[in-house]
Amino acid sequence: MPPIDATPPPAEPASAIRAFRRFLCGNAMVLVAMMVGQVAVPWWITLKNGRHDLALYATLCAVAVCLTMPLMSMLGDRHSKRLLIRIGLCVYLLGAIGTACLASFGYYDIRLLLAVEIVALSGLSMVIPLMSVMASDLLPQAALPQAMQQQKFWQSAGQLGGPMLGGLALSFAGVSFALWLQIVLILAVLAVTESLPASPPATTHPRGGWWQELSAGVRAKWRIGLERNWTIITFVVGLALIPCIGMLLPLKVHAMGLSGQWLGICEASVSLGMLLGAAVGSNARIVERLGRFRLRVAAITLLGPALVLVGQTHAPLTMAASLLLVGFMNSIVVMMGYSRRILASPKRFRTRMMAVNVVVTQLSAIVGPALAGLWLMHWPISFVYLIFGITLLLGSAGYWVTPNFRTFLELDDKDVEGWYSTHYPHAFDAKEISAIAPETTPASDA
After folding, report:
1. What pTM was estimated for this model as a whole?
2. Which domain CATH number covers 126?
3. What pLDDT, in 10s, does the model give residues 372-407?
4. Is residue 126 in a domain?
5. Per-residue pLDDT at 442
6. What is the rounded distance in angstroms from the CA atom of residue 373 to the CA atom of residue 44?
7. Is 16 within a domain?
8. Does 446 map to a domain?
9. Using only C-alpha atoms, what is the Rg of the chain?
10. What is the pLDDT of residue 310?
11. What is the count of structural domains for the chain?
């Protein structure tokens, strides 16, 4: 994998390269902090009240993100992204401190825990979509495809480091220490983001309200057949995948009689797989030789059987190896089209359309754990994994009937910018855009 310095072209200004380095560092550290919390909090709930509270926690937290994400995403087109990221981190920090205090005093109340966790997730709902698109404010268009691939690689690295730190903290110092470690990491991210440039808002003089802006983004996604099908398939895949590597995983580890360290190992296996997948997905030679379409379809097809193996095995090492395969395949699926979908959208729709992607993922994170909790009342956890694995395998067939899917994935990088505006001009109605940005038209973004 090339070093960070190699991501932007050498001809780019030194200030832009430095800003992009700081941004990558901050983005990775946010994910480290988030993953530490995602290891520590579910494990604490598992030890206290098991399946019922864990299903409730996963479902209500996903509902909170689903409700707050569209509202927060609108702000990214109106105000400086750096300012909003720092505000979101402060809110996240406040919620994390509340959770750490509850654990430190040994006071477990699922209602109070949910309240403070929802505060933290509201902050993350502002940070995550803005960091997903902020690279476009730091680098010129020509550098973005490679820069976004590099960003995805370092995001995977952050997602690998978090479970490893969380698992070690749980093993040697307990839940409270892991949660205070999360707070230290958030403070470090705040220090890093202080030096980022204050990026200008995409919409200088917005006239429409947040609902009008959000509706325009949702309508644009629905009118683009490629995006519509892609989004529906993403929901089905998330419906099966999210609970299998989320709420079901600590239950599986606990049912096998393993310690919290093994939960960290399993989470780290998923993240390591994602890191390796990101390395493969950003390797131009591999992608050119195998093709984005073939890589994505092969990866999504293998995800289902890998999940089934996780649920059926009783050997810890086999489970960890299967989860590594799950992470690898999932990363390939995400990488094959991640930056393209952003670049193909008009600039002033990117944050909104990215937020819709995240909201759809959160909707699947609501329905998936709810179904898992319901099924666990009647069937063993291995059978629940089997159902989800089959669901994922069936959902992967949808890519074959998605219009222009193969064509879009196989486009040259230089042809991706503004592709949606060119091929789906009806998706971006002039009146909707003029209500958001009076002097902006789809052609200017192409």
Report:
1. 0.69
2. 1.20.1250.20
3. 888 988 899 999 999 999 998 888 888 888 888 888
4. yes
5. 34
6. 18
7. yes
8. no
9. 21
10. 93
11. 1
